[in-house]
Specification:
This protein has one domain: Mitochondrial biogenesis AIM24 (Double-stranded beta-helix), CATH 3.60.160.10. It is built from three helices and 15 strands. The strands form two sheets. Strands 1, 2, 3, 4, 5, 6, 8 and 11 form an eight-stranded antiparallel beta sheet that branches. This is AIM24 family protein. InterPro entries: AIM24, AIM24_sf, Trp_RNA-bd_attenuator-like_dom.
């Protein structure tokens, strides 16, 4: 099942018994057909699944949409980007970026603090904290952003992005924090670009058209 982009802030999902949808609770804008909505405890594991997301803070109230019909989703006027996963690589993002996704996709919480102090600092810079969410399998994911997203391919060489603009990435990508703090930054007269996320490997990184966080 693929999401149909109605406009930059609304997507439509065609729901059937074979293609239920998991969505952020309260994100339904309208629907037709015979569909029902029920709360789902936690992230991941399909419609009825649960992982310890609540313990990590990587958790959003989610609901399952089931039945037959089409449903419109949007949230607080934020922009929506549809990412199609083909099963070859996972999507990594913050849980609150998820608007909706195919219920057959698997979500899990990853502890990024095991990467040491640099990973911990990276988490702090991106707002992820010590945990992040991974979405894997084949299917569609609708992501939220401020101002829409721009996809940057990562193909071996390094790509640097602003931590505040980072939305997520797909593929086998390693993320590291690069800091170039000089005396001007220390006294508040720097360029404001002292920290960047260095992306390397193979995949795609998504940045938003804003440095505003959720």
């Amino acid at each position: 099942m693929a999401f149909e982009e109605v406009n930059s802030k609304v997507v439509r999902a065609h729901v059937s018994p074979a293609t239920p949808v998991l969505a952020r609770r309260g994100a339904m804008l309208g629907y037709d057909g015979q569909v029902t909505f029920r709360p789902v405890a936690g992230q991941g594991g399909g419609v009825g699944g649960f992982v310890g997301a609540a313990l990590s803070g990587e958790s959003n109230p989610m609901m399952a949409t089931e039945g037959t019909g089409s449903v419109l989703y949007g949230f607080r006027g934020l922009h929506v980007t549809v990412v199609q996963l083909d099963g070859s690589g996972s999507l990594t993002c913050e849980a609150d970026r998820l608007l909706a996704h195919d219920a057959n996709l698997q979500t899990g919480v990853e502890f990024i603090g095991q990467g040491g102090i640099r990973a911990a600092v990276r988490g702090a810079m991106t707002g992820q904290g010590l945990f992040t969410t991974k979405v894997s399998g084949a299917g569609a994911v609708a992501l939220l952003s401020h101002g829409g997203t721009y996809a940057i391919p990562v193909d071996g060489g390094g790509v640097a992005v602003d931590p505040q603009a980072y939305v997520g990435h797909v593929g086998n990508i390693q993320v590291d924090l690069s800091a170039k703090v000089g005396w001007r930054d220390a006294v508040g007269r720097g360029s404001g670009e002292a920290f960047q996320l260095k992306m390397s490997g193979q995949g795609t990184v998504y940045i938003q058209a804003s440095e505003q966080k959720f």
